[in-house]
Amino acid sequence: MIDYQAILNKIHANVIQEPDKGNIARYIPELSRVNPERFGMHLKLISGEEFAVGDSEVGFSIQSISKVLTLAMAMSKIGTHIWDRVDVEPSGNPFNHLSLLELEEGIPRNPLINSGAIVIADILVSELENPKADFLKYVQDITGDDSISYNLKVAQSEKETGFNNYAAANLLKSFNNLNNSVDDVLDFYFHQCSLEMTCSQLTKAFFLFANKGKCLAQVARITKSQAKRINAIMLTCGFYDEAGEFAFEVGLPGKSGVGGGIVAALPHEFTISVWSPGLNERGNSKLGMQALEQFTTLTNQSIF
């Protein structure tokens, strides 16, 4: 029997002593105001047991982690037609890189880089009657928590500074891979990235990826096959140009965000999330990466 609480306590004691906690994302002004000393971690087992340490109940901007949730929602709406518009290959480039998009004629390399997530956002803007409200309701439903909401200050901050995303959306539009207006799609995209959640809420949201597509309420939100494919995409593409390093060090499908969050899943076993706002040079939580590596090492639990 694994003593998960003791392991989380040990990891917490280890990482908070780290003198270099990384650098907070400053290109989105609202994110630069976060306390860099924050650290939280939450584990939810498929059996229902939960374990936590640190600031696991403090809300933060999940940013690119939201891309997995929009992908799941879009797959539940249009299925395999998604792959007509976005590929499933690792990019090997930073999350906001545009050169590949032009080279590959407007087909993003995968749905977890910005250009790919913008295509997914376009699909949801087409499919949903009230995109922002409907997506928020989806997240609230899969977590069983209607307190989750958008941080409107973060959304506005992204709108005012997201020039690279405007460039990506216009490039997609020029290749006829955006069906709605750039402004409508990016308004939705900036809101999805501004979702504010805690580590505890994130483990609940990602429960369906560890539970064959079924959410906490045991309702099938995506098929087993779709859950398998999303896990595969998270493993190969969830950490931009550091996905290989995360697979090598941690060995779990997962997704990071520049708000300092990381969430990962071991199918049939658990979901785990960690939050530490300081980022490494590749835009992933510095202490979060260390904490998850220690977790899979100490528990001897990974997909490998």
From TrEMBL:
Keywords: Acetylation, Hydrolase. GO terms for molecular function: glutaminase activity. The keyword Hydrolase applies. GO terms for biological process: glutamate biosynthetic process; L-glutamine catabolic process. Its EC number is 3.5.1.2. It holds the Pfam family Glutaminase. The keyword Oxidoreductase does not apply. It is an enzyme of class 3 (hydrolase). It catalyses: L-glutamine + H2O = L-glutamate + NH4(+). Substrate binds at S64, N114, E158, N165, Y189, Y240, V258. Belongs to the glutaminase family. Homotetramer. This is Glutaminase. It comes from Bizionia algoritergicola.
